[in-house]
């Protein structure tokens, strides 16, 4: 078998096996087509021209099909039945989950089960969950892997690269996550929910999002019961490692601090895949009415709402999500009347704007207060300076004002301090007065003695 690795007889590469481990580790069960679209989206462009579609799919999924064949021989993966359209489903074994935990950098306790038997009834729900992940991810082709492809292939791939981004990576998604209202994370009791998907992508401003996927088989009443279970879980508090009580969900998932503190609940996204008999256009209005007590906030004076203790509930259709992605207007927040991008729908833009205005007003008020204090201090200092200037002594000699040093000198007092003898004079006038006093008096004139003396009287 020339050109093929002995240990990987199907010719798979490490990259392909890594794709399989990451995708199946996160999604639990998937088709080879879904694995390829998430793990190696550039292959969709390289083989887009092949006809018929079956040949195109066979070509772009060949490397991952080979990887799955090799992994099955090594006990890492297994066939998990087939979809309603006849596609083979694949899932990991326990050994494969352990390998996937290293690829995803997750502890084994977060890896869940092997999803064995998920395809026994066609796996329509897991397939819809996977398609929801793909629609949110919007995987981008790696242009470096298309350098040798034809120009029209690269152009189509570049258009996908330039399109709006998706949310998170495959490692950001967790499937079938228990949300225990009683019991523990590992052994949940009755009355809790199980999230179809949990998305944690703080790098894309989505720190935590619970996702429920409905194939339009459930009624509004049934969905309401499920959301009530979410509310029970989100209200549950347990002791954290520091001994303080916190909402149970906060002990597992980090969430940013908010002005509402622990009262702020993470959002729930409902994705409707219209393959069942129920029309989501009829289900959603009824669901909005039935769950009003769960999501409706309190209106504030500024026109925004507070949602303390409430669950932001958002709805979208899988077709809309595929078309627009998370950055497009595909999401309806319960209580609002228009479609929004995901970040706006899960957020509270009016409150954020109100909080920003309040912070700006507080900042301006603080600055104005500091300016007033500064002006008052300056005025007080100027007043004191003027009063001091009015008291400054004037020289009795020249009429000039004393310098600060001279003023201080004439005011000096205390034991051992000599009294200034010219306290009414400035320095210059004092020096002049002292110098004049110290000049010596002129000596008295001595009369000149005339010539002669006693000898002259006896001259002959």
What does this structure look like?
This protein has 460 residues and is α+β, with helices and mostly antiparallel strands. The chain has helices spanning 14-27, 32-39, 42-46, 53-60, 62-73, 94-104, 124-137, 151-162, 220-235, 280-290, 292-295, 318-324, 342-346, 349-391, 404-411, 427-438, and strands spanning 29-31, 77-82, 88-92, 173-179, 193-201, 206-214, 237-239, 245-247, 268-272, 298-299, 305-306, 313-317, 332-333. A hairpin with a 5-residue loop joins strand 10 (298-299) and strand 11. It starts with 13 loop residues before the first helix and ends in a 22-residue tail after the last helix. 31% of the residues are buried. Residues 1-7 have low confidence and may be disordered.
Gross morphology is: elongated
Question: In DSSP terms, counting alpha (H) and pi (I) runs of 4 or more, how many helices?
Answer: 16
As a percent range, the share of strand residues is: 5-15%
Mean pLDDT: 86
Secondary-structure-derived class: alpha+beta
Estimated helix fraction: 40-55%
Low-confidence stretches: 1-7
User: What spatial order of strands do you see in the largest sheet?
Assistant: 4-5-6-9-12-13
* Number of β-strand runs: 13
- Number of structurally distinct domains: 4
Q: Main beta sheet: strand number and arrangement?
A: 6 strands, mixed
Secondary-structure element string? HEHHHHEEHHHEEEHEEEHHEEEHEHHHH
Rounded radius of gyration (Å): 44 Å
> Termini separation (Å)?
171 Å
């Amino acid at each position: 078998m020339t050109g093929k690795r002995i240990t990987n007889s199907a010719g798979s590469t490490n990259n392909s096996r890594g794709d399989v481990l990451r995708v199946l580790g996160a999604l639990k069960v998937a088709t080879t087509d879904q694995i390829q679209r998430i793990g190696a989206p550039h292959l969709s462009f390289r083989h887009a021209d092949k006809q018929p579609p079956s040949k195109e799919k066979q070509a772009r999924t060949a490397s991952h099909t080979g990887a799955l064949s090799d992994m099955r021989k090594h006990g890492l993966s297994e066939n998990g039945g087939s979809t309603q359209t006849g596609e083979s489903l694949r899932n990991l074994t326990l050994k494969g989950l352990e390998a996937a935990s290293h690829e995803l950098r997750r502890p084994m306790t977060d890896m869940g089960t092997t999803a064995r038997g998920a395809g026994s009834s066609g796996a329509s729900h897991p397939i819809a969950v996977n398609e929801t992940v793909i629609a949110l991810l919007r995987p981008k082709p790696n242009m470096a892997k298309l350098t040798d492809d034809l120009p029209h292939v690269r152009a189509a791939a570049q258009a996908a690269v330039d399109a709006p981004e998706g949310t998170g990576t495959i490692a950001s998604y967790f499937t079938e996550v228990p949300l225990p209202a009683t019991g523990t994370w590992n052994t949940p009791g009755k009355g809790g929910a199980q999230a179809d998907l949990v998305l944690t992508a703080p790098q894309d401003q989505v720190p935590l999002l619970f996702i429920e996927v409905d194939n339009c088989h459930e009624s509004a009443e049934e969905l309401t019961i499920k959301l009530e279970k979410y509310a029970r879980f989100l209200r549950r508090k347990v002791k954290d490692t520091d001994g303080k009580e916190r909402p149970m969900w906060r002990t597992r998932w980090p969430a940013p601090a908010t002005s509402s503190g622990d009262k702020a609940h993470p959002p729930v996204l409902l994705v409707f895949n219209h393959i069942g008999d129920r029309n989501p256009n009829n289900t959603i209005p009824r669901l909005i009415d039935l769950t009003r007590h769960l999501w409706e906030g309190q209106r504030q004076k500024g026109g925004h709402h507070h949602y303390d203790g409430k669950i932001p509930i958002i709805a979208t259709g899988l077709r809309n999500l595929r078309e627009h992605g998370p950055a497009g207007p595909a999401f309806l927040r319960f209580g609002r009347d228009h479609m929004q991008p995901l970040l706006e729908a899960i957020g509270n833009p009016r409150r954020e704007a109100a909080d920003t205005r309040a912070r700006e007003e507080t900042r301006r008020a603080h600055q104005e207060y500091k300016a007033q204090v500064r002006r008052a201090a300056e005025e007080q200092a100027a007043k004191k300076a003027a009063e001091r200037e009015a008291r400054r002594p004037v020289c009795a000699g020249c009429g000039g004002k004393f310098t600060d040093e001279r003023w201080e000198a004439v005011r000096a007092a205390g034991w051992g301090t000599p009294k200034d003898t010219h306290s009414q004079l400035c320095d210059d006038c004092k020096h002049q007065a002292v110098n004049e006093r110290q000049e010596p008096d002129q000596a008295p004139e001595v009369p000149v003695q005339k010539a002669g003396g006693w000898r002259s009287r006896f001259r002959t």
